[in-house]
Amino acid sequence: MVFGPLPGLADAAAVYHYAADAHALELRCAFDRREWTAVTEGEDLVLVALTSIHWREAWKYGERAFRYCQHDLGHAIAAISLAASMLGWRTELLSAWSHRAIAALLGLNRDDDFVDAEREEPGCVLVVTAGRVPDQLSSGSDHLLAALGGGRWSGRASQLSEDHIQWTFIDDVATATEDPGRARPNPLTIQTDVNPRIALANTSRRPAMPARAVMLQRRSALAFDARSPIDAETFFAMLARTLVIPASPSACLWWTPRIHFVLFVHRVVGVAPGLYVMGRDRGGFERLLREIRGHDVREPAHDTLPLVCLGRGDCRSLARRLSCDQDIASDGCFSLGMIAEFDRSLAEYGPSFYRHLFWESGLVGQILYLEAEAAGVRSTGIGCFYDDPVHEVLGLQNHAFQSLYHFTVGMPVEDTRLTTEAGYLWG
């Protein structure tokens, strides 16, 4: 995190590392407050930079660790955006910042600070503000990095593990998808047909839960009871909130939505079990529907949501099989696969956008997590799935669209072998 002087914390502007276990900030670099004021043009704002340590996932998941780290970044982007909106602030992902600039901003390129410790991989930079984003920040990193030139650095990284398995594939992918930064495209405009969706998302009759309570109790389900349903209104409202509407976390991204859904509906009262698809961007959804083959049924499944039924029937076994034969994909109310507009996105923005597609899927997953908690059920992300069989089910014959993340929602079964304790003393 980077921000200006705060009473009771520091008189200087500074770069901090957030220690999640202690809910505390650790000073990394202090620099002249006047330089910060010049760069931010007097605006009240905070920069939040996200990084990954691949070994945190690779020790367990091997090569899949890279995409899981990107999923986690997406979840974090959504969490920050939602937390900021609760305070009346907004969040914007800065597209112009390259990975090398992020590394310089955070001191990740300081070799002496990482002796015997795992290196951090730059992710992205978010600006959180109640005002405007200064041009000196949105257009690039030069001005702020120059301000850090006279800064005083402190701190060293701690080691996670003494022993490691070297997954060179992860390093190769990280290098191939290094982000050079890019000028921000024109600001996104909300589509004119989104108003009915906003109304749908705000008219659910379920009792309101305090946002703080929903966020603090958010957990991943370990198993579902394979019998409890949800009602159609809740189902449609959950889907509607994944769309790009004002104040949605999706609005902090600088690109139009590239993630769409293939849904396996199992237990939704008022919605026939079966296979459905839903689009989060009109043009992308039309292209997806053109690529889908072998499904003659194309029935609209809602008056305003871009939801289409491809076939009715029990698809629990299919959902289980596609998600690495995991029962949790079939025992809930519904599950889904996130289908990304793949080739077109990489052609438009380059190899580094491979990461961004996973960020968007993680962001959408975070929304579904919170929506499930608010609805009195629970959800979990499914990182293990068979992408080629997903393509076969939809009749996809190339990489125009690619399955990137699976998800499932249902009534959780408590595991009595586990003890639940408060995660943080401050919570």
Concise structural overview:
The chain is an alpha+beta fold and 427 residues long.
Overview of the structural elements:
This protein has 427 residues and is α+β, with helices and mostly antiparallel strands. It folds into two domains: 2-151 and 162-176, 3-Layer(aba) Sandwich (NADH Oxidase); 192-410, 3-Layer(aba) Sandwich (NADH Oxidase), CATH 3.40.109. It contains 15 helices and 16 strands. A seven-stranded antiparallel beta sheet has the order 12-13-11-9-14-16-15, with helices on both faces. The chain has a four-stranded antiparallel beta sheet with strand order 1-2-3-7. Strand 12 and strand 13 form a beta hairpin. It is globular. It starts with a strand and ends in a 17-residue tail after the last strand.
Report the CATH topology name of the largest domain. Answer: NADH Oxidase
Strands in their spatial order, largest beta sheet:
12-13-11-9-14-16-15
Shape: globular
- Write down the Rg: 22 Å
Q: CATH superfamily of the largest domain, called what?
A: NADH Oxidase
Relative helix content: 25-40%
Average pLDDT metric: 91
Level-1 CATH class name of the largest domain = Alpha Beta
How many independent structural domains? 2
Low-confidence stretches: 189-199
What does the main sheet amount to?
7 strands, antiparallel
**CATH architecture label of the largest domain:** 3-Layer(aba) Sandwich
Number of strands: 16
> What is the helix tally?
15
The class by helix and strand makeup works out as: alpha+beta
Task: Report the β-strand fraction as a percent range.
Answer: 15-25%
Q: Give the end-to-end Cα distance, rounded to a whole number of Å.
A: 21 Å
